[in-house]
């Protein structure tokens, strides 16, 4: 039986000749948690999807009603090679952690930074999974503690950019660091910072040897010293040791699935907070379901369809065969989802 199909083309009355290519989204079993998680870590090792951590409001009480946000350490494993497999408990992270970067590499899953309610972390670990056991190897720490940054792999090089050093920060970093998996003894190397505004919750991708960063939001302090967001549409490519500005996105996108799914020389920005529903969180109608496509060779953005499921933000992706797993996320302010999807980018 074919898994459920969860996309539909974006309709546009005046653009029938330019209808977006249909993208395939299929369903995996939901994670065995009634609420689900935002800012979790996820990756694939040995055909197993390993995911967990992140934060939620486990009793269902939202923060504006006095609810307490809780960071988690539980890990879950799903055998992707076995049809009909179910989630299994897979141990715990070394500590409750969320909103870092997780990247699938041949050696395992990189867990980079993150934080909890009190502090952000510098720690970087390689997570592996074998015979039902999760193990962690300590790698070189980040130069500074970071959470809500974006990261991606280009070849054997790991890039991280942006983020904030403390939970109450009112300015975001434009810092850019690289870790060479073939020269781990060198640690994290400082590269030229992003020329644009420092930002959190951007979307990153690696295409060939290029590192691409799009969207996110910058921060500034208001009169009361609280962080205020500015939603961003700019896009950048780091190639040959320098940054190049790319075409702006058609809309703002904050906390879209990251790293962005890639097919050929195109990347796909799935959902994201476009800033159109800023205001009372109780009245929020959910995040955009639109999928944007960026073609590097053309330096152009286009529509690539629309999710026919609750659109998540603040979620990790993990590559699997021709697709990319989308693990949980936030579908409205404070509201998580246990859904797990596979997005398969179109070939053209």
TrEMBL record:
<keyword id="KW-0732">Signal</keyword>
<dbReference type="InterPro" id="IPR056734">
    <property type="entry name" value="NANM"/>
</dbReference>
<dbReference type="Pfam" id="PF24996">
    <property type="entry name" value="NANM"/>
</dbReference>
<dbReference type="InterPro" id="IPR015915">
    <property type="entry name" value="Kelch-typ_b-propeller"/>
</dbReference>
<protein>
    <submittedName>
        <fullName>Galactose oxidase</fullName>
    </submittedName>
</protein>
<feature type="signal peptide">
    <location>
        <begin position="1"/>
        <end position="23"/>
    </location>
</feature>
